[in-house]
Design brief:
Blueprint (H helix, E strand, L loop, with lengths): L9 H16 L9 H8 L3 H14 L2 E4 L3 E4 L8 E2 L16 E11 L3 H7 L7 E10 L2 E11 L8 H6 L2 H6 L7 E9 L3 H7 L7 E9 L5 E10 L7 E2 L4
Parallel strand pairs: 3-10
Antiparallel strand pairs: 1-2, 4-5, 5-6, 6-9, 7-8, 8-9
Amino acid sequence: MRDSDVKIPLYYQLAQTLSKQIEAEMAVNDKLASEKEIGEEYSVSRTTVRLALSELERQGYIYRMQGKGSYVSQRPAKMTNSLLNLAPQPNTGKTADQRQTKLIEFEHTTPSDKVMQLMNISAQQKITRVSLLTSATQEPLLIDTFLIRTPISTPLSRGYLKVQNPYAALSSLDMDLHAVSETYAITQPTKKEQKLLHIDAQEPLLLATKQYYDSNNRIILLNMRHVVSSRFQYQNFFSND
């Protein structure tokens, strides 16, 4: 679980590990190990464990009873997005196994003039472009497009992203993540977006654009997320505790 080379808070790494354990191994109302037991198992402080449990509670994985401990919730009723997480967490009332992600675009390509200027790269340098469609019970929610600076130490291919969880594959890339920024805008859908998202031309989309920076202040990844706001309550947070 612990990776000191990744620029992600330790409590958040622990929360991710525990959430995977909950999804794979635990049932509703199962009791989690105590703070002391979790700390000993993962060799982290009690403060880190408390922050991780607060994060799990925030994301809807657990509920806590004073003096009794932490228990697995009925479902992640309210999933909250994090600047540190590539995968979307739609607040739709749908559980994780009711959501589907489909790879709709993958290519190694020459960047546009705008992307070259933004990422400070030359026309000779390729980028990797990945687009994903996320749905819940067959209802499209959003389109994620990732532009990744190359070369990267972890190779990506269309076949690999089709057999793996695409968001997990992208999150596992060996990137020197140092800082993240996010901006928001309202846009009108293109014809392609209308078709993929099953919306008409008058349906506005929320565009959330993330820029991931390395320790040299270079943009190493751009993420453009087009959200059907009528189907997706986009709520974000960041904690530096």
